[in-house]
Write a structure and sequence with these properties.
The chain has one domain. By secondary structure, it is mostly beta strands. β1 and β2 form a beta hairpin. It has a 3-stranded antiparallel sheet, with no helix packed on it. It starts with a strand and ends in a 15-residue tail after the last strand.
Length: about 45
Amino acid sequence: DICDVIVTGHGDGKVEVRDINSGESETTLVTSAQDDNVFLDIED
């Protein structure tokens, strides 16, 4: 398999992680301050 897990992010902060083999999924809420750059670590 190329990919076993799919991660889907939504504009409201929800993140869904789905295992395509078992069909299980988990949804969580990611919170951050308005001025946080969640991609800061990939700028390096």
